[in-house]
Amino acid sequence: MNRTLVTALAVAAIIGTTVGGVTAVQVAGDDDNPSGAAGSPTSSGSSPASPSKSSTPPSATPQASESPAASPDDVLWATQRVLHDGDREVRINLVDAPAELHRIQDGWLVTTRSSPQEPAFEAFTVRADGSVTHLADTFLNGDVNADGTRYVAMRQDAKGYGVWDVTTGEEVALLDERPAPGSFPSGGAAFEDDGATVLTRWGSRDGGDLILSVRVSSGESSVAGDGLVGAWTASPDGSYLAGTAADARDAETGNSQCLDVAPTDAPDRRLTDCGHAFVGTPSFSPSGDLVLAAAAPVEGFGPGIFRAISVETGVPVGEITSPDASLEARLVDDRRAVVLAAGNLTGDGTVVYLCELDGACKEAGRSSDAAESAVLGEVR
What we know:
2% of the residues lie in helices and 44% in strands. It is built from one helix and 29 strands. Strands 1, 5, 6, 7, 8, 9, 10 and 11 form an eight-stranded antiparallel beta sheet that branches. It is globular. It starts with a helix and ends with a strand.
């Protein structure tokens, strides 16, 4: 099996307790302009309060290496070179691989990372004309609020969690109130349903962690969860948290990548399931009723089966037999999911599928770029 594909499968979820160094990201020149004249550098580690701006021309016609099928409006994905939203294509030409992708007001937000092992991200806004603007230097995954005007994530300098206006680029809030002396931000953030409250994670020297629900305007906070490692997220309304359990292990299989889901208003009423594991950042359905996980253990040629699991009961309500060389999947509603896969078992190319729960998968897009440099977007 191709080592690149093995690496992509092995590093689907990453967390660090110390902040990595700033990695400069720029907009690259296209194949006809390798010098980069189509887009000058958008960041050199400068303050996100004064983002520089660079534009690349939108793709007037599909590129030879990108062959999108007729995609429904809710299929959102990107490679380093092209962003796909339904049947729309925007040329982006990022130097580093995309790590997350969200719709925002009048465009999209994409974060990049220099390698799968490096959770130091950079966030950019992308407009329909192909312009790409540096927003912030961040750490691990963040979230966009319901109206697409704000982005929240841990700051890469470890000072706390920032909230940015995605239109102006201004950092409108810094959430740096520690839950206890010696606590430190450990990455991952999500908005709750009202957009005025965010969920942030804080580590401690004894290895424990807390997820706090924080009012942006006042900094007032309360404990919403704990005991999660790796990438985590919240349901769209903020009522459930999902991630990997910190201290669970299956006695028979030895699997320690155990699914953990808990309501934020009752963190002790948690569901821990070592028969399922999250691949990358957990994915909730837009309704918040379901979460998507892979049947454990996940090894070899990637997840064989993805199951949609009820957050209330822990019972699977549908499953997808994933295509070969699948890397990750995300729910688009309560009956469908998008699956990202390599083009073959040697890791060549990218294929995106739209799959029905308990049904068939149909190709929704294809690229000659490596699947490890592609990402599925949030469509909620």
